[in-house]
Amino acid sequence: MATELHHFINGAKVAGTSGRTLDVFNPNTGEVSARTPLASADEVRSAIASSAAAFPEWASVNPQRRARVMFNFKRLVEDNMNELAELLSAQHGKVVADSKGDVQRGLEVIEFACGIPHLQKGEFTEGAGPGIDMYSMRQPLGVCAGITPFNFPAMIPMWMFGVSIACGNTFVCKPSEKDPSVPLRLAELMMEAGAPAGVLNVINGDKEAVDTLLTDEHVEAISFVGSSAIAEYIYATGAAHGKRVQAMGGAKNHAIIMPDADLDRVVDDLIGAGYGSAGERCMAISVAVPVGKETADRLIEKLIPRVESLKVGLSTDDEADYGPMVTAEQRDKVAGWIDRGVEEGASLLVDGRGFELQGYEGGFFIGGSLFDNVTPDMDIYKEEIFGPVLSVVRAETFEEAAKLPSEHQYGNGVSIFTRDGDAARSFAANVNVGMVGINVPIPVPLAYHSFGGWKRSSFGGTNQHGMEGVRFYTKVKTVTSRWPTGVKEGSSFVIPTMK
Ligand code: NAD
To answer: Which domains does the chain have, with CATH numbers?
Structure first.
């Protein structure tokens, strides 16, 4: 029996009333496990109204009390870690250990948000002029909304609502319709932690729900993570309606492998970062660029047996390297990209198409694939595949290799593997990409730094979490005050300047 999912509005579960739903699958078996209600514009407006009503009181709660709610929330999520990870794994398909990592990376943003009394402090200048003090404060914006992708159903909502709510905003989250149960559960836990009703609402839906959030006059800011075409649309539409918008998009993350790199370590890193979570990570390494023929040949020789022996299994299998993809559609899309690579003339050294897990033939599994001799003019290089497929692009020189990520349409993450500090330092300084790893395969910044790519991986120019997140979710007010007021100077018709 498929479970009928709900919205979470004003502190309570609310059944969908639009009559439209979308199936959620058990990706291990292919069976429908739940149905997500797709909200009508009126249902979305009721969630926005609830958050708007909750805002004035929540904004006036002192920052230390807001931090206590965050501390309570952190403890509750930790207490419910196993349940959340299993729920996540059962809808997304990532293995349970990786699902715990998804929750944990979100929790790290909550830990950062627990420092909000310090983070949201303003600035003060005593004696900026005779009897004049000047100070600035960071005030919350109002109702903020987050639209999130399927691939990190715990971490990405927490990136957004963690910082936003700590800053004194109220929040409407529109999670991916493919795996919405974890965000729904997180909203319940936020209420249990002491946030008043309406501070965090979850509305399920598709384009109709998103368009209502983008155009409703009561929504002040929109945070989006998903594919680039939608990110660009979100940015343009939200900005046209006067909203502050940050919109993160897709990726094609390169790993540059220098001839002096420790190849055994590199192979370990490429296998984990390329195939973990079935490649459904925006920071997955999808392109390896060995420098020089000898490096390339040695790398390929080591990669082939590792890709062939990847253990693809049930998301509940502790021994599995990765589980099924989120939907059959996603799996078929990846298989279609592998077909395309073969047509384009790339060398398919390991073919994951057609993989079936015995006894689970209906599951959305796909084996790991490895391409050699991929060139920058091929579509499989230009576009994001978002699956367990690694493409090797051979470069003759460091300069040729370094140009590739810089000139790619996406600029999310990139890594360089080398023992040469000069090469690494100059690469990090000059590459046209937002997040750089030096001998680190998945350079996802920790919560107190900030996450964001460049070029078509991000629209709007502000990153998630860290101080960038606090700045995104607050507006600055600057006050100039003069005490005592009794000094008589007469009227001045010129702009005040500092003598
Ligand atoms: P998606 O773009 O299909 O969906 C993301 C969100 O947008 C969902 O909530 C969805 O309901 C909504 N949406 C989909 N189509 C829409 C439309 N036409 N109008 C309005 N809203 C719409 O992305 P996905 O498949 O859920 O996630 C995978 C993508 O997300 C990949 O491209 C991946 O690289 C990217 N991603 C990026 C980052 C990052 O930080 N840069 C992080 C994670 C995932």
So the answer is: 3-249+457-479 (3.40.605.10), 253-438 (3.40.309.10)
